[in-house]
Amino acid sequence: MAVLSHFQARIALEARTEGITHVNFSFDLGRNTQQVELVEKGIMLPNGKILKWAGLAEIANSRSSCFIMDDGEPRAIHIYSEETDRIYSLYPTQGAPTMLVSGIPMHRIKGTEPHQDTLEKVRAIKPVVGQVLDTATGLGYTAIEAARTAEYVTTIELDPAVLDLCRQNPWSQELFDNPNINQLIGGSFEVVSAMESARFTRVIHDPPVFSLAGDLYSSEFYGELYRVMRNRAKLFHYIGDPESKSGRSMTAGVIRRLEGVGFGQVRRVPKAYGVVAVKEIGQRLKGSK
Ligand SMILES: C[S@@+](CC[C@H](N)C(=O)[O-])C[C@H]1O[C@@H](n2cnc3c(N)ncnc32)[C@H](O)[C@@H]1O
Fold it and tell me: Rounded to whole angstroms, how far apart are CA atoms 8 and 145?
C-alpha cells in the first residue's frame, strides 16, 4: 500500500512525459525513496501491483489531500469523528504532512513545515530528558521527537479518531513502534488532574487553538501542569504567531496566568511561536520572604 500526495504523483507523471523509465520514488510521503519502474499502465510496485496513471493524475490534481493507493482507485485520507463531530485529514507538504482539524492546520506550514515546526518546539526546552508529558498527541510528532532523547514520553489525545489518522500516516509510525511512548486517550485536563504530583521533567503543551480547547489555556489547567512537574522542570507552551494581533494578546494572557500559578523564568520563544516556563519551588519561596 502506498501513501502519496501530489508531490510524489507529479514526479512520476513528469518523468513519464519526458519518457523516463526509472525514477526515485517515495511510497511513504517522502520518508524513504527507492527506484521504481514506470511501465505503460503506471508505476510498478515492488509487489508487482501497478499504481495506475489515472489514479496518479487524480492525486496530482489534489493539493490538499494525502491518499492511500494500491492497484485500485486512490482513497483520500480523512476521518469523521462522531465523538467530537470533527473532520480530520492529512494535508501534504514537501515533508511530513500536517493534520487539518475541521480545516485548521495543527502545525505551522507557512515558511516552514511540520518537522521543522516540531524541532523548534522541542528544542525550546532542551535538553529533553527524563519523564516527558506531551499534552496533545495530534500526529505524534512532538512525542516522537521528544522520545529520541527522553527516558519516557506520556502523550494524551482527546479523540481516538486522531490516532486512526496517525496509523495511516507514515510519519507517525514511531508513535506505535517506540516502547518508550505511552499513549493515553482522554481530555488533558481530566487526565492530568488524575496524575501523581512531581512526576515530569519536561512538558510539551501544544494544544489546538483556543476556540477548540479553551480549558487547556486556563489557570486551572496550568496549575495542574505545575503540580505534576518536578522542581526545575521546564514547560514549552505553543501559542501561535507572536506577531499577529491575537497571538500577541494571547501570549500576554498565557504569561500572566503561568506566573499566576507559580511558574518562573517565563520567556517568549518567538521562533517556536510559544513560551517557556520553569517550575522553581526554591525561587518562589525566596521571592515570597
Ligand atoms: C496542535 S495538535 C497537537 C500536535 C502534536 N503536538 C504533534 O506534534 O503532531 C492538537 C491535538 O490536541 C487534540 N486535543 C484537542 N482537545 C484536547 C484535549 N482537551 N485533550 C487532549 N488533546 C486534545 C486534538 O485532537 C489534536 O490532535
Answer: 25
Q: How far is the CA of 112 from the centre of ligand 1 (A)?
A: 20
- Would you say the CB of residue 162 lies under 6 angstroms from ligand 1? yes
User: β-strand 67-69 against 2-4: which pairing, if any?
Assistant: antiparallel
Task: Judge if the beta carbon of residue 157 lies within 6 A of ligand 1.
Answer: yes
Instruction: Decide: 263 and 225 in contact? Cβ < 8 Å.
Output: no
Sort strands 67-69 and 75-76 into parallel, antiparallel or unpaired. Answer: antiparallel
CA 40 – CA 19 distance, rounded (Å):
11
Question: Atom 17 in ligand 1: which residue has the minimum CA distance?
Answer: 158
In tens digits, the chain (289 residues) has pLDDT values of 899 999 999 999 999 999 999 999 999 999 999 999 999 999 998 888 999 999 999 999 999 999 999 888 999 999 999 999 999 999 999 999 999 998 899 999 999 999 999 999 999 999 999 999 999 999 999 999 999 999 999 999 999 999 999 999 999 999 999 999 999 999 999 999 999 999 999 999 999 999 999 999 999 999 999 999 999 999 999 999 999 998 999 999 999 999 999 999 999 999 999 999 999 986 555 444 3
Nearest partner of 218 among 154, 247, 261, 187, judged by Cα? 261
Query: What pTM did the predictor assign?
Result: 0.95
